[in-house]
Amino acid sequence: MMRNILLLFSLLTMAGPGQAQRADTMITGLEQAQWILGGQAYPSVWRRESSLALANGQRLELDVDFLVNKAQFEQMQGNRRLPLVFKWFRFSGARLFIANVNKDPQAVTVVEQGGQWLYHCHVVNDKITRGTWVVKPVYGNNEPVMINGQECEFRITVQ
Questions:
Q1: Are 121 and 64 in contact (CB under 8 A)?
Q2: Which in 22, 29, 50, 156 has the greatest CB count within 10 A?
Q3: With 90 as the cut, is the pLDDT of residue 9 above it?
Q4: Which of 128, 156, 135, 130 is nearest to 89 (CA)?
């Protein structure tokens, strides 16, 4: 029997204490990010929480458009930094455990839209469970994706 649970989610970019901030010139910003549940999109609200009903064990998707520097993007395709890898971490008590890893399965391309270059990523967790989840995009060489000098991460809390 599946129970409805409350899903709270927020999109955050945070750098932890003591983490070095480095310049990342390929990804220059975040155009949009949204959670997809049951085929319906729920836009993420920047730095605020929203709520949504979710059945335990249901499929949850994350759809992200990064703003990119096209010249840097083309250079990075040949040096094993692409495609991006999305690491799904789950808190258990005060500890954070890796629960899933997704490579963006789409062809590594950028699309011009309104004079900006977008790198579209779509990743899935087939069986989301209760707890706080942190999804961190990293390059193929395990370097974190940085936006405005901070590590990019997406948080979602399932209750």
A1: yes
A2: 156
A3: no
A4: 135
> How many CB atoms within 10 Å of residue 139?
20
Lowest-pLDDT range, 43-47, 90-94, 109-113?
Answer: 43-47
* Helix/strand/coil for 158: strand
Domain count, the chain: 1
E-assigned strand segments in the chain? 4-13, 27-37, 40-43, 50-55, 60-68, 85-92, 95-103, 111-113, 116-125, 131-138, 146-147, 150-158
* Beta strands 116-125 and 131-138, pairing class: unpaired
- Distance, in Å, from the CA atom of 79 to the CA atom of 100, rounded to the nearest integer, reads 24
Contact assessment for residue 60 and residue 50, using Cβ atoms and an 8 Å cutoff: no
What residues does 14 pair with on adjacent strands? none
Q: What is the mean pLDDT of residues 29-54?
A: 73
CATH number at residue 104: 2.60.40
Its pTM stands at 0.77
Pairing of strands 131-138, 85-92: antiparallel
